[in-house]
Amino acid sequence: MSKILIVAEHAEGKLNGGVAKTVAAAKGVGGEIHVAVFAADAAAVAEQAAKLDGVTKVLAVNNAANANPVAAVLAPQIVEVASGGYTHVFVPGTTFGKDLAPRIAAKLDVQQVSDVMAVHGPNSFDRPIYAGNAITTVETPAGTVVATVRLASFQAVGAGGSASVETVSVGAAVPTHTRYVKLEAQKSERPDLQSAARVVSGGRALGSSENFKVIFDFADKIGAGVGASRAAVDSGYVPNDMQVGQTGKIIAPELYFAVGISGAIQHLAGIKDARTIVAINKDPEAPIFEVADIGLVGDLFQVVPELTGKV
Amino acid sequence: MSVERDVMEYDVVVVGAGPSGLSTACRLKQLAEAAGKELSVCVVEKGSEVGAHILSGAVFEPRALNELFPDWKERGAPLNVPVSGDDIYFFRSETAAFKMPHLFVPKTMHNDGNYIISLANLCRWLGQQAEGMGVEIYPGFAAQTAIIEDGVVKGITVGDMGVNREGEHKPDFTPGMELRAKYTVFAEGCRGHIGKQLIAQYALAQDADPQHYAIGIKEIWTVPESQHKPGLVVHGAGWPLDLTGTSALGGSFLYHFENNQVLVGLIVDLSYTNPHLSPFDEFQRFKHHPVIKQYLDGGTRTSYGARAICKGGFNSLPKSVFPGGMLVGCDLGTMNFAKIKGNHTAMKSGMLAAEAIAEALLAGGEGGDTLDSYPAKFKASWLYDELYRSRNFGPLLHKFGALVGGALNYIEQNWFGGKFPFTVHDLKPDHATLKLASASSKITYPKPDGKLSFDKLSSVFLSSTNHEEDQPVHLTLKDADIPIAKNLPMYDEPAQRYCPAGVYEVVDEGSGPRFQINAQNCVHCKTCDIKDPAQNINWVAPEGGGGPNYANM
Amino acid sequence: MKALVSVKRVVDYNVRIQVKSDGSGVVTDGVKHSMNPFDEIAMEEAVRLKEKGKVTEIVAVTIGGAKNEETLRTALAFGADRAIHVKEEGEVQPLTAAKAFAAVLKKEEAKLFLAGKQAIDDDANQTGQMVAALLDIAQATFASKVEIDGDKATVTREIDAGLETLEVDLPAVITTDLRLNEPRYLKLPDIMKAKKKPIEAVSFADLGVTPAAGLKTTKTVPPPARSKGIMVKTTDELVEALKSKGLL
Ligand SMILES: Cc1cc2nc3c(=O)[nH]c(=O)nc-3n(C[C@H](O)[C@H](O)[C@H](O)COP(=O)(O)OP(=O)(O)OC[C@H]3O[C@@H](n4cnc5c(N)ncnc54)[C@H](O)[C@@H]3O)c2cc1C
Ligand SMILES: Cc1cc2nc3c(=O)[nH]c(=O)nc-3n(C[C@H](O)[C@H](O)[C@H](O)COP(=O)(O)OP(=O)(O)OC[C@H]3O[C@@H](n4cnc5c(N)ncnc54)[C@H](O)[C@@H]3O)c2cc1C
Ligand code: SF4
User: Which segments constitute the Electron transfer flavoprotein alpha/beta-subunit N-terminal domain (chain C) (predicted)?
Assistant: First the structure.
């Protein structure tokens, strides 16, 4: 039976939301699921992890060196824990996990599986290649399976569990060649287009930079980032760095509004991983409706302000 | 703004790594080696790699290749699919077709001994042969202008990199290099943008008929194995174009290539008269004809592209030489339209140019002169004979339509061996053929079904075209007002329809119509440069490496 | 100080990816290849560090078949002083690649290993980290700013939470993110000169590397197409639909 170790990502005493999704992926493998929390003081985070449905045990590893997550420092400790009979080590597919997992895998002398998007069994996974333009099914060779989990592919598990928390001490020597200096959170009034969970984009239909205000107003109301089609950028309504699509930004928000955008394939190339696409367009034949999860036919200048008033 | 440019000198600089340019380069090296001497040869290619901008049918006649590399088989040239059958259809309507009995097919349309190839792959192979002999090939660099000093072509200037849309230098501005040569060979293919300037500057075409063109739009499909007949060649005339009239001529092709691939295309003469006509949409609806559909149904489309074709042939050939340089291949106009084949003729012209150059340079010549030995060799070769025999083919079709013109061509090609005792001329240039929009009937094209037919933008997507966005627009307008002030009222701005890549749009944001140029979409077919009724659009080379990335077109 | 830069030959980012209909992989024959864009950023950074006098020699290294020579030529045109071609036909997975790079790094006694954060073909995002792990040296991934000061580097990393700064002792591995720099245009004269520079060829055996057991790809398919969802008639219905999906 599989025994899976999940490395918890956390910051300021809070468990990262990606861990619950990583647990969901681990549940697909089946077997025992343990979450390891490495921190200066792991108690608070361990408690949160213990609540995740499907987790059977939480390991708390306290060490002053773990005050900030540094891959080179965490890896030897994880390798030591993993040697305790674990068949799998799963890490959320965030920058934290992507930085860390290969360091673990190399130490365990195994190839790593990146961005698991579906689990077929203990040794068989789907993962994207070529920026998601192809999906491969891979089988892992003998040895520990080390993988990062593509969070957009899994629904977080619930928080109704109550696993036991065990404090473990780890003897592995941690290196000093890497020192954490600081973290600057990026602050801006509007969420960054690239990482925003919600994005509202406007197209050529807006007609002018002044008219783009209806987009900004709506976006601000729902806390969304703002994007645009190439046609809107080329016409000078908004700057170049707001372009979404093949030659602009490729984004994967939870919620995407395409307003007055026809839905050309080059635009869609930028949002193929968006979770939910909402289209507002006055042309019922517009190609965007073929891919939208929710479509509304109407004049954006009427619909969008109305919407802003209602949310 | 004057900039300091690096300079490099070669014996010969070739512009364009198509079949003509690469054959020139290979032949030069062969002749130098045979003479035990060195000739330095450099080829520049605007595509991101050799083959990236190459689009052809192609049924390939190996005659020139046999001469250039008699051992091409051993060298692994990609000629893998011999033609196994020849069908010709007259399409009478969107459902009806008449298959021409083999007996009546003009001789020029017979394809025994020919191969179905990807010209892009053949060019990649030719490029390897050339590099193997020491030719330097630089893909990703476009020749922007010819260097002309005292009336002599001295080489070319490569386009600058790192200029923004407004024409200002970006921080990474890199001036294009000067490549100087004793002789410069222009092998840019149909409607070469430097070739066009040289033809004008040296009045090379003053004794020739106007050049005539067509736009060829092509797709590659992977079809179910049961529908694939390797080696089968299917040509057609008629629907959706004219069969009996002359207002929209052209023809279609469908070739069964290797690996379950079918190559399908429509060639529309740019002498069409109705400004509402859209070659792209004609092609999309054409694929629904039962004859075509039977092969494509259930398949997937993997590539899309378009390229103009020079079809004037013999009567439209300009003078090929000028001081310090020459034109070869479709830059000159060597396509044999009776066969719709220009590859072997392009190669042969390049080889003849190479022979003339090698003779001069190996004898100690300094270059810079007008190499009349090239046209002399041309005249003495099979190439001249072949083009001469086909000289009436295009004009007959233009004058009499596909059916009657086709019959006359049958008579000329089969009974007179291509030698009617008279020559038919066609003097109206293609940009002058459009009738006024108000005097032409609107054409409503069916909505694409997403299975056999598609919209323009998803088609362009499959050409893998791209251009760095922040660079000067390479579709230059001599007069920025003409599209809206003249072309729109007179012809409903036909650029919106003849451009196969959706580069030109007329948009109205409430404050009146505006002409939008989406230069990023361009697939370098050159149709706009040819067909604009005001001859107001001048295609120039964008930053090197931009444009389509065709795989095996 | 010597810097080693790994460069990979991948299908060009402009090429539309086609999955083979028999599910055996992606069409790579006859399509344009070029240097992995993140590796170009790594090359550019190395050249800038050299221009600033922090790096004295740049060695580019690639692993792959004969065609990879093109990629090394590109690296030489960028400004690499030397190039090493680890000749290996067939697929090389990250752990094996990392073993080879680690061996080269050791042999060359380079202080800096610069690599792209990921290759745009397999999107693995592993190799740099693995090199660091194998040699027990520091790593700074997703770099958006690199400063070298003596035997230390200060690296700003683009992570989900913002910009993180790490200080690392050299030798170290740095992997590059998009915003680190904008690679320069290659100049034709540099490309011409690069054609003539020698390239050192080595094999896995020369480096003492045995390929690690790899992942086996059993199937490759195109991503599922998005399908048409529901149509709503009014903004009220839209708000309703979003709420029911838990999106508002
Ligand atoms: C190489 C290449 C790269 C490209 N890269 C990108 C890219 O990165 N991003 C990108 O977006 N595009 C890109 N494109 C361009 C793309 O093909 C489309 O041209 C572009 O996306 C169209 O933008 P649009 O939908 O805003 O404009 P249009 O296609 O003009 O659509 C406007 C839409 O607004 C609707 N509309 C008009 N008025 C109203 C109203 N009052 N209320 C509601 N709806 C209204 C219309 O029905 C129409 O559907 C690229 C193209 C190429 C060839
Ligand atoms: C749809 C279609 C079907 C065809 N079918 C057939 C067929 O079945 N059989 C046949 O024999 N022929 C066919 N032809 C014709 C044939 O393809 C051409 O005659 C042939 O390609 C001409 O070769 P070329 O070397 O003159 O030019 P091209 O093949 O056009 O090559 C020119 C090269 O020069 C490059 N270039 C251009 N300008 C510059 C510049 N300024 N700087 C740097 N590089 C530059 C281009 O990128 C290109 O790579 C067909 C053509 C088309 C369009
Ligand atoms: S802009 Fe001109 S050259 Fe470019 S694709 Fe359109 S018609 Fe062809």
Answer: 23-211
What three-state secondary structure class fits C199? coil
For atom 3 of ligand 3, the residue with the nearest CA is: B526
**C142 closest CA partner among A95, B347, A164, B245:** A95
Measured at the alpha carbon of residue A53, what is the angle toward residues A52 and A54, in degrees to the nearest 5?
Answer: 110
Secondary-structure class of domain B7-70+120-208+318-389 per CATH: alpha beta
Domain residue ranges of chain A, discontinuous segments joined by +: 3-167, 198-310
pLDDT tens digits in sequence order for chain C, 248 residues long: 999 999 999 999 888 899 998 899 999 988 899 999 999 999 999 999 999 999 999 999 999 999 999 999 999 999 999 999 999 988 999 999 999 999 999 999 999 999 999 999 999 999 999 999 999 999 999 999 999 999 999 999 999 888 999 999 999 999 999 989 999 999 999 999 999 899 999 999 999 999 999 999 999 999 988 889 999 999 999 999 999 988 88
Output the CA B55–ligand 2 centroid distance in Å: 6
| One CATH from 3.40.50.620, 3.40.50.300, 1.10.3720.10, 3.20.20.140 for A3-167 | 3.40.50.620
Nearest residue on chain C to A254, alpha-carbon basis: C247
Q: Is A6 among the annotated ligand-binding positions?
A: no
Among B551, B545, B549, B553, which residue's Cα sits nearest to residue B141?
A: B545
Any idea what DSSP says for residue A273?
Answer: T
Residue C189: phi and psi, rounded to 5, are: -60, -35
- At A250-259, the pLDDT tens digits run 899 999 999 9
Q: Quote the radius of gyration of chain A (alpha carbons, Å).
A: 22
Closest CA to B272 of B212, B201, B203: B212
A299–B contact, CB cutoff 8 A: no
Nearest C-alpha in C relative to B546: C14
Helices (H) and strands (E) in chain C, counts: 7, 13
State the DSSP string of B281-326.
Answer: HHHHHHTTSHHHHHHHTT-EEEEEEEEEEE--GGGG----EETTEE
Fold matches, A3-167 and A198-310:
yes
The ipTM, to two decimals, is: 0.94
Compare CB distances from A207 to B447, B457, B510 and report the shortest one's residue. B510
From the list A105, A175, A185, the residue facing C130 with the nearest CB is A105
Give exposure, B206-216, as e/b (b: 16+ Cβ within 10 Å).
eebbbbbbbbb
Nearest CA to ligand 2 atom 45: B16
Is A208 flagged in the annotation as binding?
A: no
In this structure, which residue's CA is closest to atom 12 in ligand 2?
A: B341
Q: State whether residue B496 sits within 8 Å of chain C by CB.
A: no
What are the domain boundaries of chain B? 7-70+120-208+318-389
Is omega for the bond preceding B489 within 30 degrees of 0, making it cis? no
Range of the domain at C240: 2-244
Q: Which CATH number fits domain A198-310: 1.20.1560.10, 2.40.50.140, 3.20.20.70, 3.40.50.1220?
A: 3.40.50.1220
Return the CATH number at C117: 3.40.50.620
The count of domains in chain C is: 1
pTM over 0.90: yes
Instruction: Name the DSSP letter for residue C63.
Output: E
pLDDT digits (tens, 9 = 90+) for A52-82: 999 999 999 999 999 999 999 999 999 999 9
CB proximity list for B499: less than 8 A, separation 6 or greater: B527, B528
**Omega before B533 cis (within 30°)?**
no
